[in-house]
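B., you asked whether I could sanity-check this one before it goes into the benchmark set. Here's the sequence:
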Amino acid sequence: MILNERDSRHEQVLQVAQAMMTAARTAPKAKGVDIIEVAMVTESNIRILSDTMRQMYEENGFKFFLRDAENILQAECIVLVGTREHPHGMNCGHCGFETCAERSEGVPCAINSVDVGIAVGSACAVAADHRVDTRVMFSAGLAAQQLDWLDGCTQVYAIPVSASSKNPFFDRNPKTE
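And here's what the prediction gave me:
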């Protein structure tokens, strides 16, 4: 039997993305409290995410939403990593308030932000270990958050995944309408 890499690439990318999700899940979390949510987006849902990003561009005028909306269409899948809001009661002050009780509504707990960042980093490390192409995208994560694909998450980041001759998520040209 001869198996050409092109014939199994998509399956391999999906397997790596699943390993990325496991890495995000098992990443260290503050006080051992797991408030991370992880999912993978494939096929037609990538188009839905792209369309949502285009709509967000129409609303906010930030051109990188338009550029990234086109860019994610080159992904074979997208890993989403988010965190639910959960103040840890540590009164660390990293959010800008002296105590957790003083924190204004809508201001994220800095510890939650660190947790999601470590989870994203762990997922990207797995991708790097398997030599697949990725890029962390705030824009696509915000669109996934708007779609509420990670139920109740207040911070979501997207990691498009690809395996091609050249990483499609770098050397990107700014988009104009």
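One thing to flag: The chain has a mean pLDDT of 94. Otherwise nothing jumped out at me.
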